[in-house]
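Input/output pair, single chain:
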Amino acid sequence: MFEKRFKDKLLIQRQAGLYRNPPQIEKREGKYVFVNGRKILNFSSNDYLGLGTSRELAEKVAANFKRYGASSSSSRLVTGNYSVISQAEKAFAEYFGYSDALFFPSGYQANMGVVSALFGRDDTVIFDKHVHASTVKGMELSKAEFLGFKHNSMSHLKKRLESRSEKQLFVLTEGLFSMDGDFPDLGGIAGLKKTHGFLTLVDEAHSFGALGEKGRGIGRSIADVAVGTLGKSFGLFGAFALLPEGFKEYLFNFSSPLIYSTTLPEAHAASALDALEIVFRCDAERETLRKNSLLMKEALGADGFNTCGDAHIIAVEIGDEALAASVSRNLSERGVFAFPARFPTVPLGRAILRVGISALHAPDDIAIFVESLKGAYEKARSEIRQDLHHGN
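Output:
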């Protein structure tokens, strides 16, 4: 019975253009990945500063694991509360301007663990409808009332706030939206915050390290709590929550993903400190990333593509799910990789090609991408037309 259900659902997924079958990556070399022995220029990575393939960081991480061992062998609340982890958390809190920080095994766990623990049945959480799935899952687990507002619409956010003015209110948004690639209206949120007195959580997974002075992100002016990841600009893995005074103690006692997970090893905390020190001196990489992002957006626009994105994530509007998958596949055949984001990652019928820019890219790489995309798009449209013709 289960087998038939699984097969039927997968068949429907294929027919809708939503089937997911990621390529198997054999190895990575800087801005390239290798698939079936072919060298492919990668525009789908979140390695914004290039630290994911940094020899310096890799050597430091290897030395840390050799020194400390590979596992903490315990949850944080049993025998996994190592001093080096607390030291690293304190360093991250100080760097980003918070009272404390807390490490999690992944960004998904961080969002889910923080949101589900902080909010309860008597609270109302108002969130931008384009926040990450992990944030939504955290709200569902919290049992709080949660209301979405239209993406970056301050007028809709204001209406939501006014409709629940008698309750304790929280607003959730992102520092750089992971699919749209745009910034939140920080000024608008700040103005509403003064009037309504809500607490704000900002997910800066895609902005920490890459944006702001020394990579400190863009949302500190409004963010009471912020979540960041070490698996993107920091070139490592794991995540962290930046917290006001007293919040860490509370999460230690009420955040289920933290309480019931084996904590990240000491070597990870030591490596996070090394990554933080490298990020601090990555001004040149951040400037290269900024220039690459601007060049990509201008080049795509000049060739007639509709895009959105304010920084190093650029969404190329495609629309049809099957067309987006076909464009990505044809790009890969041309030696370039870009991810087709489809429902439920983005709204149905609003599929995009999500382009991730890196400081490792050069202007010639961007020119190759745009020229390859033109050919891949035309071929994909032709394939869709032929399929429709044969179907008729």
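The chain has 13 helices and 15 strands. Residues 62 and 85 are 17 Å apart (CA to CA).
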